[in-house]
Amino acid sequence: MKINRGAIIKSVEQAFLRNDLPDFQPGDTVRVDYKVTEGARTRVQGFEGVVIAMNNRGTGKSFTVRKVAFNEGVERIFPFNTPLIDKVTVLERGKVRRAKLYYLRKLRGKAAKIKADRGRMAKATANAKAK
Amino acid sequence: MKGILGTKVGMTQVWKNDRAIAVTVVLAGPCAVVQRKTSPVDGYEAVQLGFGDTMKKRLNKPLLGHLEKSKAAPLRHLREFRGFSPETETVTAEIFANGEKVDVSGTTKGRGFTGVMKRWNFQGGPDAHGSKKWHRRGGSIGARKTPGRVMKGKKMAGHYGNERVTTQNLEVIEVRGAENLLLIKGAIPGANGSLVVIKQARKGGK
């Protein structure tokens, strides 16, 4: 009996993958609106920063967002496919040369700034308009 | 106890109530009922299920004759389930419901001749601080003239894995009847693609 195990796993994962989030890459500045439950109340909390890494594929996909708050670097890892992400807004698309931007941890202020990728931003707005 | 045969497909995670749950996907059934054993004839009540089609030439004549009695196609695996008497002639994954507890048996991955650290979780020796040729050894295996021998059952290096192991009280997260799939919470014994036996939990579970 021949079975395609990879195809079965994919068919199970399919329902849980989020296709509604916008495309973003390491180097982009994003705002992640995340649902937070406090007791019986649920509210949406924003986290704004630079995407410095994307990890894994499939249901386990995740990304790391870094910001500097009160002179202290703060990083948060979000599961990509969690239903707790309300929405992701791409604020700026950055031009970077590597997939993991861990070098930003050592940099502060202007040195930690990522150049905007105007080409990609223009393309994204054109795509959005076409839709 | 109701049960079914299946193939371990692999692990993934699903989201339920905003939480990620690690699950093992099992392709379970459909299993043909090959033989029903009864007390007057066999001395006990059981059902023999078959799983996994195969080529006729892979089976010998006695086995083909046995399958012929139930008009079953050539089957790769046959297993008995005591005290289980399905009403239908095929058993599918739908005998289980979401949230039910099951025991899963399989053959663990063979690890060959293995040292005591991996096989019995011995601590071994230090990696540094002047330790020389004493990193993964098991230490003393007994006393001196009394008793003058090594105790029976002493944990030592040897063959590990490739044995039947049962993991009890695993939760069925989801039953997908149309695709013959069971999503079982957590890990189950064996390599991907190996045969697993899924039974209703012996201890009932909670």
Structural commentary:
The complex is a heterodimer of chains A (131) and B (206). Chain A has 2 helices and 5 strands; from the N terminus they run αβββββα. By secondary structure, chain A is of the alpha+beta class. Chain A has one domain (18-130): Roll (SH3 type barrels), CATH 2.30.30.790. Chain A has a 5-stranded antiparallel beta sheet, with no helix packed on it. The termini of chain A are far apart. The relative contact order of chain A is 0.20. The mean pLDDT of chain A is 88. Chain B has a 6-stranded antiparallel beta barrel. In chain B, strands 5-4-3-6 form a 4-stranded antiparallel beta sheet. A two-stranded antiparallel sheet of chain B has the order 8-9. The model of chain B has no long low-confidence stretch (mean pLDDT 89). The A-B interface holds A 1, 3, 5, 8-9, 11-13, 16, 35, 58-60, 79, 81-84 and B 7, 9-10, 12-15, 18, 20, 25, 27, 52-54, 76, 179, 181, 183, 192-193.
Summarize the helices and strands and which ones pair or pack.
The complex is a heterodimer of chains A (131) and B (206).
Chain A: H1 5-14, E1 29-38, E2 41-55, E3 62-69, E4 72-79, E5 85-92, H2 118-130
Antiparallel strand pairs in A: 1-2, 1-5, 2-3, 3-4
Chain B: E1 3-16, E2 19-28, E3 31-37, H1 39-42, E4 46-53, H2 61-69, E5 75-82, E6 90-91, E7 101-107, E8 112-114, H3 116-120, E9 158-160, E10 164-176, E11 181-185, E12 195-200
Antiparallel strand pairs in B: 1-2, 1-12, 2-11, 3-4, 3-6, 4-5, 7-10, 7-12, 8-9, 10-11
